[in-house]
Each structure stands twice: as C-alpha cells, then as structure tokens.
Write a structure and sequence with these properties.
Pfam families: Zn_ribbon_3CxxC. It comes from Linnemannia elongata AG-77. 21% of the residues lie in helices and 27% in strands. With 169 residues, it is an alpha+beta fold. The chain has one domain. Strands 1, 2, 3, 4, 5 and 6 form a six-stranded mixed sheet that branches.
C-alpha cells in the first residue's frame, strides 16, 4: 500500500460476493452495488467481524515499522435486499485507529459474513422465524467516537451500553 492512499469510510462488499455465491443458499443472489433504500424490500444494519489494519501507524517511530491492527466483532454493516429478493448490497463502515486517529483498512471474516447475510435474508424473506432475542454481551469496548457507523447514527453497536444499563435495572 502506498502511503498516500486513504482507506474508505464506507466499503462496498462487492468483492465478497463470490464467497456468498458459493454457499448453497447464496447462489440465488446477485450483487448490485447501485441498490438504494428506495429499491429495497428490506434494509437493516448488522454487525460483522473482522480485523482493522492501520498502515499509517507503521510509519510512526514507536511502532517499529509494523501496522497497528485490532479485531472487531462490531463492524457496522448496512444490508439491502431488493424488492424481488434477487439482488442485494452490503456496505461496511470503517473504524479509526486509536493511535493516530486515521481510518484503517478492513479485512472481513468472510465465513461469518456469509452466514450472517444469508441468515438475515432467510428472516427477511419469511423462510425462518425470528430467534428469541438473547442479550449479546460484548467482549470488548465499542468506541463510538471512532466508528463511522456510529458517527452516522446507524450503528447497532451504539446501543450496546444503553442495553447493558437497561438490563441491570
């Protein structure tokens, strides 16, 4: 990576469609990077997991030439499903590095992505019932000041602390 190339704040998931299409249930879907909320049957936000890698930090003297990286299970992801249930779109939202405040590159956990997207589409198309809601306890903090999805006001990780407080009462 060149030093001048900036990571995107919103990352289109088109390059991950091949993994989804290889799944038996996923072969029925095509990826449409132009899909908007107006074109959709359903729209929602789910958390995905992956690793963020800040290459800008490898140029900092304290990092010894290594990029700063962190795993996240709270990667804000917008999902769109078309009205005809044949096309979809997914958009990941970046996170900022806590060492240099720049947005980092994202490496997706593709297997979990495929499972979550297909599970969501099964729910949205009526092929399965909604699961009984179980409270998910986060294993780490979600820094809402560094999450692009939170800054846009759409991240479901934004509600983790609120839900935790409500549950303890």
């Amino acid at each position: 990576m060149t030093r001048n190339k900036k990571p995107k704040l919103e990352i289109d998931a088109a390059k991950h469609h091949a993994a989804l299409a290889q799944a038996e249930e996923g072969s029925q879907y095509e990826y449409d990077p132009t899909l908007t909320i107006e074109d959709c049957r359903r729209y929602g936000v789910r958390n995905m997991s992956g690793v963020f890698i800040c290459h800008a930090c490898q140029y900092r003297p304290n990092n010894g030439g290594k990029p700063h990286a962190w795993g996240s299970g709270t990667v804000c992801t917008e999902l769109y499903l078309s009205k005809d249930n044949k096309t979809y779109r997914a958009v990941f939202h970046a996170q900022q590095c806590n060492q240099c405040n720049r947005y980092a590159r994202f490496k997706l956990n593709e297997k979990k992505y495929v499972d979550k997207v297909l599970d969501t589409f099964e729910l949205w198309t009526g092929r399965r019932e909604a699961y009984e809601s179980a409270f998910h306890e986060s294993t780490g903090p979600h820094d809402i000041s560094r999450c692009h999805g939170c800054l846009k006001g759409i991240c479901v990780g934004n509600n983790v602390k609120k839900n935790r407080r409500r549950r303890r009462r």
